[in-house]
Design a protein that fits this description.
This protein has 89 residues and is mostly helical. It contains 3 helices and no strands.
């Protein structure tokens, strides 16, 4: 029961972070903030699915592909942002 509560709180934290990065993106129109928002939304979705689906621990590996996609998105956005900064300077 407490693990369900903590899983929901973690999902909510990821969703709040996604909304904050979306707000920053609306102000600046920087693609990095949009990528971070999408990544945190994916991480929140992953945590919610882990909490709600009750999949046994041994069979959860397919859900971690969502987490891999989020971290790949962050790494790709950082690479793109650094490459963009190098061209303009």
């Amino acid at each position: 029961m407490i693990s369900d509560f903590l899983g929901g709180a973690t999902s909510m934290g990821f969703a709040i972070a996604a909304l904050l990065f979306l707000k920053f993106w609306q102000r600046t129109r920087e693609g990095l903030f949009l990528a971070f928002s999408a990544a945190f939304l994916l991480l929140g979705t992953n945590q919610a699915l882990l909490t709600l689906t009750r999949i046994p621990l041994e069979e959860r590996s397919s859900l971690y592909l969502i987490r891999l996609a989020a971290f790949t998105l962050i790494i790709g956005a950082l690479w793109w942002q650094n490459r963009k900064g190098r061209r303009s300077g």
